[in-house]
TrEMBL record:
<dbReference type="Pfam" id="PF01408">
    <property type="entry name" value="GFO_IDH_MocA"/>
</dbReference>
<feature type="domain" description="GFO/IDH/MocA-like oxidoreductase">
    <location>
        <begin position="127"/>
        <end position="247"/>
    </location>
</feature>
<keyword id="KW-0560">Oxidoreductase</keyword>
<dbReference type="InterPro" id="IPR036291">
    <property type="entry name" value="NAD(P)-bd_dom_sf"/>
</dbReference>
<comment type="similarity">
    <text>Belongs to the Gfo/Idh/MocA family.</text>
</comment>
<dbReference type="InterPro" id="IPR000683">
    <property type="entry name" value="Gfo/Idh/MocA-like_OxRdtase_N"/>
</dbReference>
<dbReference type="Pfam" id="PF22725">
    <property type="entry name" value="GFO_IDH_MocA_C3"/>
</dbReference>
<feature type="domain" description="Gfo/Idh/MocA-like oxidoreductase N-terminal">
    <location>
        <begin position="1"/>
        <end position="119"/>
    </location>
</feature>
<dbReference type="InterPro" id="IPR055170">
    <property type="entry name" value="GFO_IDH_MocA-like_dom"/>
</dbReference>
<protein>
    <submittedName>
        <fullName>Gfo/Idh/MocA family oxidoreductase</fullName>
    </submittedName>
</protein>
Length: 334
């Protein structure tokens, strides 16, 4: 199998390493707008470097395409792969705007292309366990959900400027996994945001601390909290409470919590510090699932339509934050 990868920054390099480790991949070609960076990535992963991005888009050049380039390049590369008739894996988001995302969705569906969008939490062992527990009836009737995503340290100002904001950049993962684990849609959200840290968040219309209440399609209530300044460590969790049991995702020995109860030693491990180490197995499983999709012709495990729904919830949350009112997701649906 010949796989092409475009974009050899940090996440691209990590995906390249995961691809190179797959026995199904006989030839891995990497490309970047900076050819020197592509050559360096090829040397580190045992891949071959292409001199131009266009080399990977030529007819018959590759059997599948992995897109880890800058966000503004995502729509064009997804559509180029679809036009070439090859499966595409693309890191989130699909596009910088909802309008562009809808355009990509329309064209992908018209071409009947298989596109896998990179929401890696769907491949995390804990979230997959929660997904099964709900469907097997282990939790009983779901009554409430709580989700948390907190960074240990904030991203730099340059990143925040083009990130799309806390709800789109960070909590979009919570919105996607909430839909996937519960099998329900988010209908309405009431969100708050606060600036408790650097001034550059406010300068870009963003916040560094968040809280929201979400109403799901069956009436289940979900709550969400997030922060860019969680000094104890990187904290991503989900709690699902049903009539029979409560299940927690991410509650392991490295969760950045400390108990105030006497005689309690849990958790005893070193806290997670950032997303890649926390989710390395999920990223690797995600790539394995994409390779299986290419090999077996199976449907995408996370479609462009799925990605659009998560972004619409993020946009509803951000509108709610700015206008201080509950917002139905249908209000932001094009």
């Amino acid at each position: 199998m010949r796989i092409g990868l475009i974009g050899t920054g940090r996440i691209g390099l990590s995906h390249a390493a995961a691809l190179a480790a797959r026995p199904e991949v006989g030839d891995l070609l990497v490309a970047d707008l900076d050819p020197a960076r592509a050559r360096a990535a090829a040397e580190r992963t045992g891949a071959r470097a292409a001199e131009r991005v266009e080399d990977l888009l030529a007819p018959g050049a590759v059997d599948a395409l992995v897109v880890t380039a800058a966000t503004d390049a995502h729509p064009g590369l997804i559509l180029a792969g679809a036009a070439a008739g090859i499966p595409v894996f693309c890191e989130k988001p699909v596009a910088p705007t909802v309008a562009e995302t809808v355009h990509v969705l329309t064209e992908v569906e018209r071409a009947r292309a298989r596109v896998h969008i990179g929401f890696m939490r769907r491949f995390d062992a804990g979230y997959r366990r929660a997904h099964r527990a709900l469907r097997d009836g282990e939790l009983g009737e779901l009554h409430r959900v709580h989700a948390t995503t907190c960074d240990m340290a904030p991203p730099p100002a340059a990143y925040v400027a083009g990130s799309g904001g806390l709800f789109r950049d960070c909590h979009v993962h919570d919105f996607d996994i909430l839909r996937w684990v519960t099998g329900r849609e988010v209908e309405e959200v009431f969100a708050y945001g606060a600036g408790r840290g650097a001034d550059y968040f406010a300068e870009h219309g963003d916040v560094d601390t968040s809280a929201a209440v979400l109403r799901l399609s069956d009436g289940t209530l979900a709550t969400l909290q997030g922060s860019r300044y969680n000094g104890a460590g990187y904290d991503v969790r989900m709690e699902l409470a049903g009539t029979h049991a409560t299940l927690a995702v991410g509650l392991d020995d490295r969760v950045p919590l400390r108990s105030a109860e006497p005689g309690t030693a849990f958790p005893a491990g070193d806290p997670w510090e950032e997303f890649w180490s926390r989710f390395t197995p999920a990223y690797e499983a995600e790539i394995a699932a994409f390779i299986a999709m290419v090999r077996d012709g199976t449907p995408s495990p996370c479609t462009v339509a799925d990605a659009l729904e998560a972004v619409l919830v993020a946009d509803a949350a951000d509108l709610s934050r700015r206008e201080h009112r509950p917002v139905r997701v249908d209000e932001v649906r094009p």
